[in-house]
Amino acid sequence: MTTSEKTKITVQVVVDKTLEKVWESWIKPKHIVNWYFASPDWHCPKSENDLQPGGNFVFRMEAKDGSFGFDFGGVYQEVKKQELITYIMDDGRAARIEFSELPDGILIKETFEAESTNSVEIQRGGWQAIVDNFKSYTESL
């Protein structure tokens, strides 16, 4: 018997801001374009976000030199304000984002199913860089 259990990767960060500010920075397109990229030579020039069950999102990621770009998108499954977001990516993989209050800030824990092209380490590093960018951006507000 074979199993189709997918590898899951988790990244997390603690942000020293209120839950309200963290939530706003995570969901509003005017903020997303300032942090949704994995390295300084990339950017997110466009963001669309319909945060509701059945709603779509599309974040455009591009190399700043124009050499490459792609849309990262999906459909939201579950949304609990300031607590939980689940979605299915356009390629069928599932993801879950949890927001929790801690004494030193807001913990954001994102778990997603790995894809088969890149190593788990590369995927974890890229997604961790994005949440680290989120922390830096949001704490600067």
Domain count, please report it: 1
The secondary-structure element order is EHHEEEEEEH
- Can you give the helix content as a percent range? 10-25%
Task: Return the average pLDDT rounded to an integer.
Answer: 96
CATH C-level label: Alpha Beta
Strand order of the largest sheet: 1-7-6-5-4-3-2
CATH architecture group name: 2-Layer Sandwich
Distance between the terminal alpha carbons, to the nearest Å?
52 Å
Low-confidence sequence ranges: none
Oligomer: single chain
Gyration radius, to the nearest Å?
15 Å
Largest sheet: 7 strands, antiparallel
InterPro entries: ASHA1/2-like_C, START-like_dom_sf
Domain Activator of Hsp90 ATPase homologue 1/2-like C-terminal: 18-138
Pfam families: AHSA1
Family: Belongs to the AHA1 family.
Attribute tags:
seven-stranded antiparallel beta sheet; 7 strands; Alpha-D-Glucose-1,6-Bisphosphate, Chain A, domain 4; Activator of Hsp90 ATPase homologue 1/2-like C-terminal domain-containing protein; 141 residues; ASHA1/2-like_C; alpha+beta
